[in-house]
């Protein structure tokens, strides 16, 4: 459809962003044939693109403008002044099209925090039905089940008929998937339970967002949009960059949106919305769209030459990301790792042909090996943990008294001390990494050190460091300034350092240990990018500062909180100071949750669709 045809019609709902969240809303709202829905997406549709479909080809999409926004952070003081590349999906399906396909679950307390912060209806039990609604769990075959150790999954807690397919990979299996669960048990981890119970402590092979029948990535464009693309009341325009939300001039206390201004190939157009404008741009673009539209801090807007329509200094603040500290360890030559693909174009070509022709081989198997560990598991010898954690939190608040008007840090400190809650997600990747390449995500796993390598990644589960994303100009093509403020809170660095020491200890347990290459002293061999093997907490902090990257899970820039506590949207996801603008994506998360967040974006979007339709349920009466 041409932009001219698109703008000749008026729509009930105009959705800004055809990403993970936007396409869920488009599919659900257009279920009502009497409602018209339009979606504006800056990227293109790449349905049937093998680089997106192939579950383990995602790195090939990063840093390519036809898939990726190619965002960069400002230099990060907490990570030795490094700039970090942020891969975010600029394509139909958004980041669900280019992520690792890893599928986690927020803990019970993660979501109950949201309710405690003043968001009624957003606790764990409220969202559980929406997790089930969006997914179909595909149990593994008997043969794979014996290898993958899937016994922790409780099928009764899983969805059976949702659009997003989740599974374990049947078409490829790697040695590290077999040794990982047993290694964690031998290291003292408890037998894992299904994370749907509300706690994920343990080491296991995690599910992935892959359709086992087709061996393709299951993502919002494929499974929410494509089956419904023919609906006469659903209209999509790609390559359409949102410039701003248009508001009518009125004297009412809440601004009313009338439509959206956008550009295609440099030409500006305008589309009308008779009911609502719904912003689904993601953590970077959603605050950018609000600020371009005159919603935000007067100082930010005035500097960019934009008139203030709603004064809200919370827009673009509260940026919170999972930081991942990677330690690369050498394995014996007989245990294959992805280095073989990187170093041999012939083998890569064969693997690509195996995927395209037979849906088999290494490109079918997305990362699965992970574990969630509590502070007690990570550092059992920490004396008076409560006093230690509380003092770090209280000292920071004394120095930065305005940093936490919502009172989140006290909730997070309580969680850090809870033995049922994880302070880290340990991810084992069957490839080496050179973190010095962190400004270019596609080069992170490229390195020229000989041999086979794994990365033990210690990823934060809920950080206390909060940064910001703000526009620099009124030009929508100019990327906003991204400052995640990694390790600006001392508790984050402290926990990361303890996790580094813990990950190195995990490598001493069988059956993983016998797969590792050892030096003449019987010690594991670290990648040259890791300066030295730390023995003390202070040394481990140095390693964390030099070996930490994003886990690509930013949240919080349009936080769902009371307005006076820094909130941008209320518990119905309505933007304060407007009568008909909502934000639906990870930018509304008021606090972080453990693990990979795509599952929670789907659940939030499903709930948002019900809120908009006026039929949201809570956990008490099911769905």
Automatic annotation (TrEMBL):
FAD binds at residues 91, 242. It comes from the Eukaryota. Its cofactor is FAD. GO terms for molecular function: flavin adenine dinucleotide binding; oxidoreductase activity, acting on CH-OH group of donors. Pfam families: GMC_oxred_C (PF05199), GMC_oxred_N (PF00732). Keywords: FAD, Flavoprotein. Residues 89-112 form the Glucose-methanol-choline oxidoreductase N-terminal domain. SUPFAM superfamilies: FAD-linked reductases, C-terminal domain, FAD/NAD(P)-binding domain. Belongs to the GMC oxidoreductase family. This is GMC oxidoreductase. It comes from Trematosphaeria pertusa.
């Amino acid at each position: 459809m041409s932009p001219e045809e698109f703008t000749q019609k008026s729509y009930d709902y105009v959705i800004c962003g055809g990403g993970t969240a936007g396409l869920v809303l488009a599919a659900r709202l257009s279920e009502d044939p009497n409602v018209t829905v339009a979606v504006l997406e800056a990227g293109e549709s790449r349905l049937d693109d093998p680089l997106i479909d192939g579950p383990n080809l995602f790195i090939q999409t990063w840093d390519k403008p036809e898939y990726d926004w190619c965002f960069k952070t400002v230099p990060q003081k907490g990570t030795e002044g490094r700039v970090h590349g942020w891969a975010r999906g600029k394509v139909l399906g958004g980041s669900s099209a280019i992520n690792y396909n890893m599928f986690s679950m927020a803990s019970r307390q993660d979501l109950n925090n949201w309710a405690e912060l003043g968001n009624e209806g957003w606790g764990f039990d409220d969202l559980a039905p929406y997790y089930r609604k969006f997914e179909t769990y595909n149990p593994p075959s008997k043969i794979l089940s014996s290898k993958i150790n899937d016994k922790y999954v409780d099928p009764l807690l899983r969805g059976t008929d949702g659009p997003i397919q989740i599974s374990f990979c049947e078409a490829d299996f790697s040695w590290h998937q077999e040794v990982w669960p047993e290694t964690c048990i031998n290291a003292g981890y408890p037998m894992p339970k299904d994370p749907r119970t509300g706690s994920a402590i343990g080491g296991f092979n995690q599910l992935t967002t892959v359709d086992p029948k087709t061996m393709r990535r299951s993502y919002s464009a494929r499974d929410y949009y494509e089956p419904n693309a023919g609906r006469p009341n659903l209209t999509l325009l790609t390559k359409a960059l949102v410039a701003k939300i248009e508001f009518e001039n009125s004297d009412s206390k809440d601004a009313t949106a009338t439509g959206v201004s956008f550009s295609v190939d440099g030409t500006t157009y305008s589309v009308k919305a008779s009911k609502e404008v719904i912003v689904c741009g993601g953590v970077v673009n959603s605050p950018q769209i609000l600020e371009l539209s005159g919603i935000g801090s007067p100082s930010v807007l005035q500097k960019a030459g934009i008139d203030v329509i709603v004064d809200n200094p919370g827009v673009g603040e509260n940026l919170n990301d999972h930081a991942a500290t990677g330690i690369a360890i050498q394995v014996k030559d007989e245990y294959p790792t992805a280095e073989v693909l990187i170093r041999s174009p012939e083998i890569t070509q064969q693997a690509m042909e195996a995927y395209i022709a037979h849906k088999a081989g290494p490109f079918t198997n997305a990362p699965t090996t992970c574990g969630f560990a509590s502070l007690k598991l990570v550092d059992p010898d920490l004396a008076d943990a409560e006093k230690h954690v509380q003092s770090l939190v209280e000292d920071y608040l004394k120095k930065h008294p305005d940093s936490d008007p919502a009172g989140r840090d006290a909730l997070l400190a309580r969680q850090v001390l809870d033995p049922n809650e994880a302070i880290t997600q340990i991810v084992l990747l069957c490839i080496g990494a050179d973190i010095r390449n962190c400004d270019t995500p596609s080069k992170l796993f490229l390195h020229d050190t000989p041999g086979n390598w794994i990365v033990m990644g210690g990823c934060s589960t809920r950080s206390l460091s909060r940064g910001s994303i703000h526009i620099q100009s009124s030009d929508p093509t100019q990327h906003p300034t991204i400052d995640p403020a990694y390790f600006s809170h001392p508790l984050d660095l402290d926990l990361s350092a303890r996790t580094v020491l813990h990950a190195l200890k995990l490598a001493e347990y069988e059956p993983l240990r016998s797969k590792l290459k050892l030096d003449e002293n019987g010690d594991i061999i670290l990648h040259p990018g890791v300066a030295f093997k730390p023995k003390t907490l202070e040394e481990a902090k140095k390693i964390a500062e030099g070996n930490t990257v994003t886990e690509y899970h930013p949240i919080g820039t349009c936080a769902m909180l009371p307005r006076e506590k820094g909130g941008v949207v209320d518990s119905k996801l309505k933007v304060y100071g407007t009568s008909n603008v909502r934000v639906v994506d990870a930018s509304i998360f008021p606090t972080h949750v453990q693990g990979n967040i795509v599952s929670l974006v789907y659940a939030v979007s499903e709930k948002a669709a019900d809120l908009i339709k006026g039929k949201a349920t809570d956990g008490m009466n099911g769905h």
